[in-house]
Design goal:
With 360 residues, the protein is of the alpha/beta class. Helix content is 28%, strand content 19%. The strands form two sheets. Strands 6-7-8-9-10-11-12-13 form an eight-stranded mixed beta sheet. Strands 5-4-3-2-1-14 form a six-stranded mixed beta sheet, covered by helices on one side. A hairpin with a 2-residue loop joins strand 6 and strand 7. Helix 2 packs parallel to helix 4. The longest helix is centred in the C-terminal third of the chain and has 15 residues. The radius of gyration is 19 Å and the shape is globular. The chain starts with 5 loop residues before the first strand and ends in an 8-residue tail after the last strand.
Length: 360
Amino acid sequence: MSGEDPVFRLRMLPAGDGDCLVLSWGDGGLLHHMVIDGGRRGAYARLSDELRCIADAGEELVLYVLTHVDADHIEGSLAYLDDVNRPLLPKDVWFNGYAQMVEAGVRSTRQGDEWSKAVARLQLPLNRHFGNGVASIDHAPAEIDIAGLKVTMLSPDVAHLARMGDLWRREREPKRPSVEGMRGSRDDRPPPKQPIIVEDLVADGPIDPEKPNGSSIAFLAEWQGRRVLLGGDAHPDVLAASVARLAAEDGGRPTVHVYKASHHGSRKNTTKELIELLECCQLAVSTNGTHHGHPDPESIARFLHFGPDGPKTLHFNYATDYTIPWADPALGKAHGFIARMPEDEPGALEIDLMSDPSAP
C-alpha cells in the first residue's frame, strides 16, 4: 500500500444508500488513512477488510470522521466500534454529539448517543483539533494538519448545530419514540427521463431544510496541491458561504480536483451558486439510489452546466437506473464528460486524486 510516487486517493466503498469513504495519502513511504462515515450496517464487513489491509501494511488510521447521525452514515460506524475484533482503532475521531451541540450553543439521535458512549468507552480522542471540542467552522483553525494533509472545515456552523441540538433535546424527552436514524418517509423518484436534456434540469429549487444534514461535517482536504471536497450531507448555502471565503483568499474560483457531492447528489444540496464558486471538473456520487432515488438529475445537470469549461468526469460507485443514463456516449460527447462506474465490485470505486481523467 506504499510506493515511490506520491499517493492521494479516495475510495468509495459499498455503503448502500450511504457513505463509507477511505481517503489515503503519502509520499514514498507508509500511507496515512482517514475514514469518513460507515454507511449502512452491512457496509462494515467491506470496511473491515479495508482496515485489515491497512493494519497488515503497518499503516495507521489517523482519523475517523462521522459526519452526522443519519442511519446511512452511522450504522456501519457503530458496527465498527462494537466489533471487538476490529483490525485497528483511529488515532482521532471527529463527531458532534449531543454534548458538542450543547457546547456550541445550544436520526438516530439514539445511535448518536451510542456512538458518543463508544468513543468515550474506548478512550478515543474526540475533536481535539477544535476549540471547545466542537467540530465546526466557528471552532476550527484556518487549516488543520492531519499527518501532512491540509484540512479546511466547510460545515457545520454553530447555528446549524444549535438547531440540531434542539431537535436532539426533544427526542431525548421521555416517551418520545426514537427516529432510528431515518428522517421522514421514502422519497423515491423515477429515474431521469430519456433523452436527458441538461438545460431543462438546471433551474434551482428549494434547498435542504433537514436539521441532521445541516449539522453534517464537510471539509476540503489538500495534499501536494491536489484538493478534494468531501461534502457529507451538508447544506449547500453553508458550503457556498465557506467556499466563497476561500474564493476571496484565492482571488477567484478555488481549484478543487474532485467534489464528493453532498447528500448523495440530492437536488436540494447542489446549487448553481455552489457549483459556480468551484473550479472543479470531477464529481463523485456515493449511493445505490434506494430510499430517495439519488442522485437527482438536477444536481448532475447543474454540475455540468455551471461548472468551469473543459472536460468533466462523473464518478458513480453504483450502476443503477439513476446513474446508467449518464453513461450514454452521445450525451457525454454533447456536454464534454465521461461517466465512471465500477467494473467489478458494485459500490466500490477508487479515484486517483493525483491525476485528471480525460473526457471525449
